[in-house]
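Example record for the data management plan.
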Amino acid sequence: MNSKKQPIAPRRKTSFKVYMKRYWQLYALLSLPLLYLLIFKYVPMIYIQIAFKKYSIVESVWKLPLAKNYGFEYFIKAFKSKDFILALRNTVGLNLLDLVIGFPAPIIFALILNELCFKRFKKVVQTIAYMPHFLSWVIIYGLALQLFAPSTGFINMILNNLGMESVPFLNESRHWVATYAGLGVWQNFGWGSIVYLAAIAGISPELYEAASVDGAGRFKKMWHITLPGIKPTIVVLLVMNLGNILGSNFDRPFALQNNLVMDVANVISTYVYKVGIKGLQFSLTTAVGLFQSVVGVFFLLMANWISRKLGERGIW
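Corresponding structural encoding:
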């Protein structure tokens, strides 16, 4: 028997041409989203300089004169505006409320679904919970109006028939904020649970079997196996949500707001629409948008740094 080891042939490096010939279909598919990002996300960054210049619709953005105070005229003007300060306060407050109430909701829902034994019933519940995600906020506001209107809403009609007073869900600031947060949770908790259900599916069944042998019940399995198993996913999504603490969608607050609740319903996105697009103050609102983006990136970096310090992976 020959005891000599046969020499291992060195692996030949695959040339770039051979590699591209083999996988060009994947890069062809990737080119479409990259083209989208380039055209609609990166090219518009050229116009960030409008925030530092006196904008004129008839002049090229490269030829616009620099604004006063070394280009920071519109930033100073924004922070002197009571409407902007109010919009900033409302944006942070509503987003924090969404984070406190809306972030745990899909986690809890995913944990409950994971404990259901009847698969057919589980699929029906999942489908019903996913459906609100595909409704626009205009449709949701129409439904809310039918349910929560002061005199003609279904819920207030029931309360009146029971001898109770109507609840101003949509026309009083405190109740409007609660309705705003509740509708946001209702629309997103089912769709948001998909990520957590996928993370739960990746947990080894042997851990649950070992826990059952040790006499652990469902709650202890959930607390000691399921939650630690999806902890990295929770941290990543929490970091991403913290990065959006100063961001705001336009359709949700714009569809739900009315003149009676503007003290809590006017957020940065609606402020930019009213002042920038309707009021034609493009430099001012570009400065507001740039400030919003910079603060969002700062929150994202800080949240990622904290998660790394606590021993989690973060998002990079």
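Summary line stored alongside the record: The chain is about 65% helix and 0% strand.
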